Diguanylate cyclase (GGDEF)-like protein/PAS domain S-box-containing protein
Amino acid sequence: RAKSAGGNRFELADPEADARAITRHGLTTALPTALERGEFFIEYQPLVHLGDGSVRGAEALVRWLHPQHGVLGPDRFIPLAEHTGLIVPLGRWVLEQSVRQAREWRELQGGAEAVGPLRINVNLSPCQLTHPGLVQDTVDILERTGIEPDALCLEVTESALIGADDDLLKPLRRLAEMGVDIALDDFGTGYSNLANLRRLPVSILKLDRSFTQSMQQFPADPVDLKIVEGIVSLAHSLDLAVTVEGVETGAQAEQLRILGCDTAQGWYYARPGPPERLHELALVDATG
Ligand code: C2E
Ligand code: MG
Ligand code: MG
Ligand code: MG
């Protein structure tokens, strides 16, 4: 429809698509140098223990402060970064910053660590999984920072691991053997074979937000309850911990706690925010 006769001229019939294409193009050209220009920053969202409400760690979520468009969420630029290959250096930068941040929290925590040092969760893109430097980069960052591997959790989406062969799983196995936790992110959206979980080197399931949303009503739909109950019991029988995403209300938190989920994350506790905020939340929590 947008094509016109002759040469490279296009007649755009859809002005909105046109605007999107321009934005996309603008982002694509600005992206490669955004890392050098220091335009990325990280927000942290607390991970809360459902049993006692204590803050146990945080997920690192990257943002781009674009000079013209303002703050852009990862959904706007991660796909572009994957497409252009920037995701590898960007992902490495996020990992290093986040691990350094975890060490800073630890120093601030001092001796007041009733629940142990705060842990840090970092998202990995499928492109990073196939990049040969992943294991060594991670080892180097942990060594430089002086953080034990078991304070780090790498989140990989279920869809990235569906049908994964041994070559793809090898770096994750190496990391898991070192003590790094691997979490299966957005679990339940990818139609993966549950029996398949056994061969993945994961120790945490992050139940997708759609399950949390189905707990909106109280009491929730009995079928939804059964499904979550089944996933939780399967996970626990495989020695996997269950984290729930997108908890927005106290009723959801309570329902998911009763169903046996271990850890929760969502706006009910806190929106993603600057590192000082996470530290404040953890501190308030530790001192009662
Ligand atoms: P994710 O890893 O599943 O992260 C959770 C997303 O849910 C985040 O969106 C978070 O802000 C949002 N969220 C948290 N609590 C709630 C809630 O209560 N309600 C609702 N509606 N949403 C909530 P965000 O920050 O926009 O990130 C989107 C996705 O971008 C992430 O999904 C992750 O897949 C990806 N991402 C973020 N940072 C990175 C990164 O450094 N590297 C890579 N490769 N991907 C990243
Ligand atoms: Mg995640
Ligand atoms: Mg997730
Ligand atoms: Mg999600």
Summary: Residues 59, 123, 155, 185 surround magnesium ion (ligand 2) (CB under 6 Å). The radius of gyration is 21 Å. The first helix runs from residue 15 to 34.
